[in-house]
Amino acid sequence: MIVGEQKPIEEIKKMVAPYKKLLILGCGTCVKTCFAGGEDETAALASALRMAFRTEGVSIEIDEQTVERQCENEFIQEAAKKIGENDAVLSLACGAGVQAMARRFPKEPVYPGLNTTFIGVQESHGVFTEECSGCGNCELGNFGGICPVTRCSKKLLNGPCGGSQKGICEVDANTECAWQLIIDRLKTLGQLNNLRTYIPPKNWKTSNSGGPRKLVREDHII
Amino acid sequence: MIVMNPMEKFKAKITLFHCINAFTEHVSLSTDDREVKIVKMPCSGMTTEVFMLKAFEAGADAVAILVCPEGACRYMEGNMRARKRVEKTSNVLDKIGVGGKRLSIHNLAAKNSDSVPGLLDEIMSTIKELGKNPAAAA
Questions:
Q1: Which of A93, A104, A124, B6 lies in the 20 to 30 Å Cα band around A160?
Q2: Do A57 and B2 touch (CB under 8 A)?
Q3: Contact residues, chain A, for B96 at CB < 8 Å
Q4: What is the pTM of this model?
Q5: Domain CATH number, residue B94
Q6: For B81-98, how does the pLDDT look when each residue is reduced to its tens digit (9 = 90+)?
Protein backbone atom coordinates (compact mmCIF):
# COMPACT_ATOMS: atom_id res chain seq x y z
CA MET A 1 0.00 0.00 0.00
CA ILE A 2 0.94 3.64 -0.23
CA VAL A 3 1.77 4.94 3.23
CA GLY A 4 1.20 8.53 4.25
CA GLU A 5 0.91 10.66 7.36
CA GLN A 6 -1.18 13.68 8.09
CA LYS A 7 0.49 17.06 7.81
CA PRO A 8 0.72 19.15 10.99
CA ILE A 9 -2.54 20.96 11.66
CA GLU A 10 -0.77 24.35 11.65
CA GLU A 11 0.37 23.73 8.06
CA ILE A 12 -3.10 22.61 7.01
CA LYS A 13 -4.70 25.67 8.63
CA LYS A 14 -2.39 27.97 6.71
CA MET A 15 -3.25 26.31 3.37
CA VAL A 16 -7.01 26.45 3.79
CA ALA A 17 -7.28 29.79 5.63
CA PRO A 18 -8.26 31.83 2.53
CA TYR A 19 -11.45 29.80 1.98
CA LYS A 20 -14.91 30.10 3.52
CA LYS A 21 -16.20 26.68 2.49
CA LEU A 22 -13.89 23.70 2.55
CA LEU A 23 -14.40 20.05 1.71
CA ILE A 24 -12.11 17.54 3.40
CA LEU A 25 -12.03 14.50 1.15
CA GLY A 26 -10.81 11.21 2.57
CA CYS A 27 -9.55 8.20 0.65
CA GLY A 28 -10.76 4.79 1.77
CA THR A 29 -8.00 2.50 0.54
CA CYS A 30 -4.24 2.75 1.25
CA VAL A 31 -4.19 5.80 3.52
CA LYS A 32 -7.14 4.47 5.47
CA THR A 33 -5.12 1.37 6.34
CA CYS A 34 -2.26 3.50 7.66
CA PHE A 35 -4.63 5.63 9.77
CA ALA A 36 -3.94 8.83 7.83
CA GLY A 37 -6.83 9.60 5.50
CA GLY A 38 -9.79 7.26 5.95
CA GLU A 39 -13.28 8.10 7.17
CA ASP A 40 -12.28 8.36 10.85
CA GLU A 41 -9.27 10.57 10.18
CA THR A 42 -11.33 12.77 7.85
CA ALA A 43 -14.00 13.28 10.52
CA ALA A 44 -11.39 13.91 13.23
CA LEU A 45 -9.49 16.44 11.14
CA ALA A 46 -12.71 18.22 10.13
CA SER A 47 -13.74 18.48 13.76
CA ALA A 48 -10.28 19.69 14.87
CA LEU A 49 -10.11 22.29 12.10
CA ARG A 50 -13.60 23.62 12.82
CA MET A 51 -12.61 24.07 16.46
CA ALA A 52 -9.21 25.55 15.56
CA PHE A 53 -10.83 28.28 13.47
CA ARG A 54 -13.64 28.82 15.98
CA THR A 55 -11.19 29.51 18.82
CA GLU A 56 -9.76 32.27 16.63
CA GLY A 57 -13.18 33.68 15.80
CA VAL A 58 -12.76 32.75 12.12
CA SER A 59 -15.86 31.61 10.28
CA ILE A 60 -15.37 28.67 7.92
CA GLU A 61 -17.73 25.88 6.87
CA ILE A 62 -16.04 22.51 6.74
CA ASP A 63 -17.73 19.60 5.05
CA GLU A 64 -16.39 16.05 4.82
CA GLN A 65 -16.68 12.99 2.60
CA THR A 66 -14.64 9.87 1.98
CA VAL A 67 -14.52 8.06 -1.34
CA GLU A 68 -13.20 4.58 -1.95
CA ARG A 69 -10.19 5.75 -3.98
CA GLN A 70 -9.19 9.22 -5.13
CA CYS A 71 -6.86 7.89 -7.82
CA GLU A 72 -9.74 6.61 -9.96
CA ASN A 73 -12.24 8.77 -11.81
CA GLU A 74 -15.16 6.44 -11.10
CA PHE A 75 -14.79 6.96 -7.36
CA ILE A 76 -13.86 10.65 -7.52
CA GLN A 77 -17.11 11.29 -9.36
CA GLU A 78 -19.05 10.47 -6.17
CA ALA A 79 -17.63 13.64 -4.60
CA ALA A 80 -18.49 15.93 -7.52
CA LYS A 81 -21.60 17.40 -5.87
CA LYS A 82 -19.83 18.38 -2.66
CA ILE A 83 -16.80 19.65 -4.56
CA GLY A 84 -19.13 21.96 -6.49
CA GLU A 85 -20.63 23.26 -3.24
CA ASN A 86 -17.28 24.20 -1.68
CA ASP A 87 -14.53 26.74 -2.43
CA ALA A 88 -11.61 24.31 -2.07
CA VAL A 89 -10.75 20.68 -1.35
CA LEU A 90 -8.32 19.37 1.22
CA SER A 91 -7.47 15.90 -0.02
CA LEU A 92 -6.41 13.24 2.45
CA ALA A 93 -5.20 10.97 -0.35
CA CYS A 94 -1.65 10.21 -1.43
CA GLY A 95 0.06 12.47 -3.97
CA ALA A 96 -1.47 10.45 -6.82
CA GLY A 97 -4.97 10.98 -5.44
CA VAL A 98 -4.44 14.72 -5.01
CA GLN A 99 -3.27 15.00 -8.62
CA ALA A 100 -6.11 12.86 -9.94
CA MET A 101 -8.50 15.27 -8.19
CA ALA A 102 -6.75 18.30 -9.65
CA ARG A 103 -6.94 16.74 -13.12
CA ARG A 104 -10.62 15.81 -12.78
CA PHE A 105 -11.63 19.22 -11.34
CA PRO A 106 -9.35 21.74 -13.09
CA LYS A 107 -11.13 24.81 -11.68
CA GLU A 108 -11.17 23.69 -8.04
CA PRO A 109 -8.21 24.39 -5.75
CA VAL A 110 -7.00 21.07 -4.27
CA TYR A 111 -4.56 20.93 -1.34
CA PRO A 112 -2.69 17.97 0.15
CA GLY A 113 -3.52 17.11 3.74
CA LEU A 114 -1.00 14.27 3.86
CA ASN A 115 2.66 13.74 3.22
CA THR A 116 3.01 10.63 1.05
CA THR A 117 5.87 8.68 2.53
CA PHE A 118 6.46 5.35 0.79
CA ILE A 119 5.17 2.07 -0.63
CA GLY A 120 5.16 -0.30 2.29
CA VAL A 121 3.47 -2.82 4.52
CA GLN A 122 2.05 -2.83 8.01
CA GLU A 123 4.73 -4.77 9.87
CA SER A 124 2.70 -4.79 13.08
CA HIS A 125 -0.25 -2.73 14.30
CA GLY A 126 0.78 0.90 13.85
CA VAL A 127 4.23 0.14 12.41
CA PHE A 128 4.72 0.66 8.67
CA THR A 129 7.89 -0.14 6.78
CA GLU A 130 9.07 0.76 3.30
CA GLU A 131 9.35 -2.32 1.10
CA CYS A 132 9.32 -1.16 -2.53
CA SER A 133 10.93 1.75 -4.35
CA GLY A 134 8.95 1.24 -7.56
CA CYS A 135 12.22 0.97 -9.50
CA GLY A 136 10.43 -0.42 -12.54
CA ASN A 137 12.50 -3.60 -12.89
CA CYS A 138 11.72 -6.03 -10.09
CA GLU A 139 14.42 -8.52 -9.18
CA LEU A 140 12.91 -9.87 -5.98
CA GLY A 141 13.15 -13.40 -7.44
CA ASN A 142 16.94 -13.33 -7.04
CA PHE A 143 16.77 -12.22 -3.44
CA GLY A 144 14.24 -14.55 -1.85
CA GLY A 145 11.52 -11.90 -1.95
CA ILE A 146 13.46 -9.27 0.03
CA CYS A 147 14.33 -6.09 -1.82
CA PRO A 148 17.90 -4.82 -1.37
CA VAL A 149 17.13 -1.75 -3.50
CA THR A 150 14.69 -0.54 -0.85
CA ARG A 151 15.71 -2.25 2.35
CA CYS A 152 19.52 -2.21 2.17
CA SER A 153 20.71 1.24 3.27
CA LYS A 154 23.45 1.06 0.62
CA LYS A 155 21.18 -0.44 -2.07
CA LEU A 156 23.75 -3.20 -2.67
CA LEU A 157 22.77 -5.79 -5.28
CA ASN A 158 25.80 -7.95 -4.49
CA GLY A 159 25.85 -7.81 -0.70
CA PRO A 160 26.37 -8.03 2.16
CA CYS A 161 28.65 -5.06 2.79
CA GLY A 162 30.48 -6.35 5.86
CA GLY A 163 29.13 -3.69 8.20
CA SER A 164 26.20 -5.75 9.41
CA GLN A 165 26.29 -6.47 13.17
CA LYS A 166 24.16 -9.32 14.50
CA GLY A 167 21.65 -8.80 11.72
CA ILE A 168 21.42 -5.04 12.23
CA CYS A 169 22.41 -2.43 9.64
CA GLU A 170 25.49 -0.38 10.49
CA VAL A 171 23.87 2.74 9.07
CA ASP A 172 20.81 2.62 11.33
CA ALA A 173 20.49 0.56 14.50
CA ASN A 174 16.71 0.40 14.02
CA THR A 175 16.98 -1.30 10.63
CA GLU A 176 17.43 -4.99 10.04
CA CYS A 177 20.25 -5.83 7.61
CA ALA A 178 18.44 -6.63 4.36
CA TRP A 179 21.28 -8.88 3.29
CA GLN A 180 21.13 -10.89 6.50
CA LEU A 181 17.41 -11.34 5.80
CA ILE A 182 18.11 -12.31 2.19
CA ILE A 183 20.71 -14.91 3.18
CA ASP A 184 18.49 -16.38 5.91
CA ARG A 185 15.57 -16.59 3.50
CA LEU A 186 17.60 -18.13 0.67
CA LYS A 187 18.94 -20.73 3.13
CA THR A 188 15.36 -21.61 4.11
CA LEU A 189 14.41 -21.91 0.43
CA GLY A 190 17.55 -23.92 -0.43
CA GLN A 191 18.47 -21.22 -2.95
CA LEU A 192 21.73 -19.95 -1.45
CA ASN A 193 23.38 -20.61 -4.82
CA ASN A 194 21.54 -17.53 -6.12
CA LEU A 195 24.31 -15.54 -4.48
CA ARG A 196 26.91 -17.02 -6.88
CA THR A 197 25.31 -15.07 -9.71
CA TYR A 198 26.79 -11.63 -10.19
CA ILE A 199 24.10 -8.96 -10.50
CA PRO A 200 25.26 -6.22 -12.89
CA PRO A 201 24.82 -2.52 -12.02
CA LYS A 202 21.17 -1.57 -12.05
CA ASN A 203 19.79 0.37 -14.97
CA TRP A 204 17.91 3.17 -13.23
CA LYS A 205 16.25 4.33 -16.46
CA THR A 206 13.14 2.41 -15.48
CA SER A 207 12.96 4.20 -12.13
CA ASN A 208 11.81 7.76 -11.44
CA SER A 209 15.41 8.84 -12.16
CA GLY A 210 14.60 8.26 -15.83
CA GLY A 211 11.86 10.92 -15.65
CA PRO A 212 8.07 10.59 -15.20
CA ARG A 213 6.89 7.13 -16.18
CA LYS A 214 3.82 6.04 -18.05
CA LEU A 215 2.35 2.57 -18.46
CA VAL A 216 0.24 2.00 -21.57
CA ARG A 217 -1.87 -1.15 -21.79
CA GLU A 218 -2.83 -1.37 -25.45
CA ASP A 219 -5.13 -4.32 -24.70
CA HIS A 220 -7.30 -2.01 -22.59
CA ILE A 221 -7.38 0.94 -24.96
CA ILE A 222 -10.07 1.31 -27.60
CA MET B 1 -9.07 35.62 19.11
CA ILE B 2 -11.90 34.99 21.57
CA VAL B 3 -10.69 35.46 25.14
CA MET B 4 -12.67 33.46 27.65
CA ASN B 5 -12.94 34.72 31.18
CA PRO B 6 -12.19 31.78 33.48
CA MET B 7 -14.14 33.48 36.26
CA GLU B 8 -17.32 33.65 34.18
CA LYS B 9 -20.07 31.61 35.86
CA PHE B 10 -21.64 28.87 33.77
CA LYS B 11 -22.98 25.35 34.04
CA ALA B 12 -20.10 23.12 33.02
CA LYS B 13 -20.68 20.41 30.43
CA ILE B 14 -18.76 17.18 30.92
CA THR B 15 -18.88 14.21 28.57
CA LEU B 16 -17.99 10.92 30.16
CA PHE B 17 -17.08 7.94 28.00
CA HIS B 18 -16.90 4.74 29.95
CA CYS B 19 -16.23 1.08 29.40
CA ILE B 20 -19.31 -0.90 30.44
CA ASN B 21 -17.04 -3.11 32.51
CA ALA B 22 -15.46 -0.22 34.39
CA PHE B 23 -18.44 1.73 35.64
CA THR B 24 -22.12 1.27 36.44
CA GLU B 25 -24.37 4.30 36.31
CA HIS B 26 -26.13 3.95 39.63
CA VAL B 27 -26.30 7.60 40.66
CA SER B 28 -26.99 10.80 38.82
CA LEU B 29 -23.72 12.58 38.24
CA SER B 30 -25.21 15.89 37.15
CA THR B 31 -25.46 18.61 39.78
CA ASP B 32 -26.51 22.27 39.84
CA ASP B 33 -23.17 23.38 38.44
CA ARG B 34 -22.47 20.56 36.00
CA GLU B 35 -24.29 18.64 33.29
CA VAL B 36 -22.80 15.22 32.71
CA LYS B 37 -23.43 13.42 29.46
CA ILE B 38 -22.63 9.72 29.65
CA VAL B 39 -21.60 7.59 26.67
CA LYS B 40 -21.36 3.84 27.26
CA MET B 41 -18.67 2.04 25.27
CA PRO B 42 -18.34 -1.74 24.85
CA CYS B 43 -14.64 -1.22 25.65
CA SER B 44 -12.72 1.99 26.33
CA GLY B 45 -10.46 1.07 23.41
CA MET B 46 -13.35 1.99 21.14
CA THR B 47 -13.12 5.64 22.22
CA THR B 48 -11.32 6.93 19.17
CA GLU B 49 -9.98 10.43 18.52
CA VAL B 50 -13.03 11.43 16.51
CA PHE B 51 -15.45 10.70 19.40
CA MET B 52 -13.44 12.83 21.81
CA LEU B 53 -13.08 15.72 19.35
CA LYS B 54 -16.77 15.63 18.41
CA ALA B 55 -17.69 15.80 22.10
CA PHE B 56 -15.65 19.00 22.44
CA GLU B 57 -17.06 20.35 19.21
CA ALA B 58 -20.57 19.70 20.53
CA GLY B 59 -19.81 21.90 23.52
CA ALA B 60 -18.19 19.79 26.25
CA ASP B 61 -15.97 21.82 28.56
CA ALA B 62 -14.21 18.62 29.57
CA VAL B 63 -14.16 15.01 28.43
CA ALA B 64 -13.20 12.09 30.64
CA ILE B 65 -12.67 8.45 29.77
CA LEU B 66 -13.24 5.87 32.51
CA VAL B 67 -11.31 2.67 31.91
CA CYS B 68 -10.62 -0.61 33.65
CA PRO B 69 -7.48 -1.01 35.79
CA GLU B 70 -4.19 -1.72 33.99
CA GLY B 71 -4.02 -5.41 33.12
CA ALA B 72 -7.73 -5.95 33.70
CA CYS B 73 -9.16 -5.14 30.28
CA ARG B 74 -11.49 -7.91 29.13
CA TYR B 75 -10.19 -7.32 25.61
CA MET B 76 -6.55 -7.35 26.79
CA GLU B 77 -5.39 -3.90 25.74
CA GLY B 78 -8.42 -1.64 25.24
CA ASN B 79 -7.56 0.60 28.20
CA MET B 80 -3.96 0.91 26.96
CA ARG B 81 -5.18 1.93 23.52
CA ALA B 82 -7.57 4.44 25.09
CA ARG B 83 -4.67 6.03 26.99
CA LYS B 84 -2.59 6.35 23.80
CA ARG B 85 -5.53 7.96 22.01
CA VAL B 86 -6.10 10.37 24.87
CA GLU B 87 -2.42 11.42 24.68
CA LYS B 88 -2.67 12.05 20.95
CA THR B 89 -5.99 13.88 21.15
CA SER B 90 -4.74 15.95 24.05
CA ASN B 91 -1.87 17.17 21.86
CA VAL B 92 -4.33 18.09 19.11
CA LEU B 93 -6.45 20.03 21.62
CA ASP B 94 -3.38 21.98 22.73
CA LYS B 95 -2.52 22.81 19.12
CA ILE B 96 -6.01 24.06 18.26
CA GLY B 97 -6.31 26.26 21.32
CA VAL B 98 -8.91 24.22 23.22
CA GLY B 99 -6.46 22.92 25.84
CA GLY B 100 -5.36 19.32 26.29
CA LYS B 101 -5.94 19.50 30.06
CA ARG B 102 -9.67 19.34 29.37
CA LEU B 103 -9.30 15.69 28.35
CA SER B 104 -8.49 13.09 30.99
CA ILE B 105 -8.44 9.33 31.44
CA HIS B 106 -8.99 7.48 34.71
CA ASN B 107 -8.46 3.85 35.65
CA LEU B 108 -11.30 2.82 37.95
CA ALA B 109 -10.66 0.09 40.48
CA ALA B 110 -13.00 -2.80 39.67
CA LYS B 111 -16.38 -1.14 39.18
CA ASN B 112 -15.67 1.39 41.88
CA SER B 113 -18.38 3.74 40.69
CA ASP B 114 -18.43 5.55 44.04
CA SER B 115 -15.15 7.25 43.19
CA VAL B 116 -16.63 8.91 40.08
CA PRO B 117 -18.28 11.95 41.79
CA GLY B 118 -14.86 12.72 43.33
CA LEU B 119 -13.21 12.51 39.89
CA LEU B 120 -15.83 14.87 38.52
CA ASP B 121 -15.04 17.35 41.29
CA GLU B 122 -11.39 17.29 40.15
CA ILE B 123 -12.47 17.83 36.55
CA MET B 124 -14.64 20.75 37.70
CA SER B 125 -11.54 22.37 39.23
CA THR B 126 -9.79 22.12 35.85
CA ILE B 127 -12.80 23.64 34.10
CA LYS B 128 -12.91 26.49 36.64
CA GLU B 129 -9.24 27.13 35.92
CA LEU B 130 -9.63 27.05 32.12
CA GLY B 131 -13.11 28.52 31.70
CA LYS B 132 -15.64 27.55 29.04
CA ASN B 133 -14.61 25.56 26.01
CA PRO B 134 -13.60 28.28 23.53
CA ALA B 135 -14.45 26.05 20.57
CA ALA B 136 -17.97 25.11 21.60
CA ALA B 137 -20.54 25.66 18.86
CA ALA B 138 -22.49 28.87 19.50
A1: A124
A2: yes
A3: 9, 48-49, 51-52, 55
A4: 0.92
A5: 3.40.50
A6: 999 999 999 999 999 999
